[in-house]
What does this fold into?
Amino acid sequence: QVQLAESGGGSVQAGGPLMPSCAAPGRIFSIGAMGWYRQAPGKQREVVATILRGSTTDYADSVKGRFTISRDNTKNTAYLQMNSLKPEDTAVYYCNAKCSTRVGSAFINYWGQGTQVTVSS
It folds into this structure.
């Protein structure tokens, strides 16, 4: 079982920044697409940003121009730089990665445990 380790959430005032990170274990053979999702109370989980291994990115309309997803393939780590945060960005943020654990094995979706982001007005 692969466990993604998230860190860097927290509480911030509106307009401030946060940068959560997500690390996959070193024993992973290969990582494909990585992404960040969020789930606010009473709402469904939604995609925030995704990044392919070749660094092609995609963003939800609600975060375009404010959030930047990046990755360091040498560290098996993805980052989400969040600027100009708004109260409506408050949610639990989950990291997702498609990982292959050995040569020839399929890529499987794995999730982090979630990190709380709270933005106060």
Q: What stands out?
A: DSSP finds no helices and eleven strands in the chain. The first strand starts at residue 5 and ends at 7.
